[in-house]
Automatic annotation (TrEMBL):
InterPro entries in the cross-refs: DUF4185 (IPR025442)
Identification of the protein by name: Uncharacterized protein DUF4185
Domain of life: Bacteria
Annotated DUF4185 domain residues: 14-336
Amino acid sequence: MRTLEVTKLRDLTGPGHTDAFGIGGTDLGAATTAPDGRIVAVFGDTFERAGVGGPGWRSPVVLFADPASVRTGLVWTGAAGPSRDYADQVVAYRHGARIGGRWGGLVGGRTITTVLPTDVITLGDTMYLHVMACQGLGNVHWTEIHRSTDDGVTWEPTGTWWPGDRQAGLFQMLTWELGPDGYVYALTTGFRRDQGLLLHRVPAERLLDPSAWEGWGHADGTWGWGRPPTLVLPGAFGELCLRRVGGQWWLAAFDAGQYRVDLVPLPDGPTTNLHTAERLTVIAGCGWHDEDHACGRVAQPYGGYILPRSTPDELHLVVSQWNTGTNWPYRAMHFRARVRD
């Protein structure tokens, strides 16, 4: 049996950490390695003041970090935007705008309050960002893919999108990773944190072709590709992060139903039986008066994104926290989980 030795390395955002980039409050922080070697982390709703609300609302934003700093706590080196100091919104839209006719088959106007990132991936010299166009939290009108060919500095829409009700709403929150077989594997769920997980794959060279995506489904007593996707794990999940770490597959998942962030080793790759897979709790949710970040007890946690430069015996995660009663803390934090046999 494996256990985790959990340590909080530092707060990543908030006063004293990201003021130089115009970031007082933000969350999420899905990360990948850019083609130039820097770490690129993508954050959600961002404000200039500590907390939620106030001036400077934008989402998503991008920060760059020194990969050598992963083991001791990420150190930010810059931000995406014209000045590279102020973290600008990298997707073009206006909060609260009513949009109609722009997104293919969607009929009629849609009010978009925010666009939230779910995951980012690097394939060759191009980076791809999957986002949800939302009207409030939990109400997803559509999802789409943006790309960057300049190491995450600027982003453009690819034209690839899916309606929010695809797969009965279970194709909203997405995490993806490139396998050694040339396929990108993706686990998905809904944005309401009350549903289970589906598994999909697509050839990497056809990532932007929605018709090339296929599901992992169960029928006639067997599992197989090219079928309507079947739940690979029931439950109530939120943010997800699927990664290959040192050649081993891992899933980090915010289990809203159990109020915790788990790490799940996947010995058989993405098609590992998640019903029986080992689950290691790295962050245990608790009340605000019961916190102990030193051992991974965090009030109102979510997220949980595996950082580049992690190893199979030492995984580094970005974990978010939002006090929805007072709107502070509203931040991202860096935790280390050492795996012990």
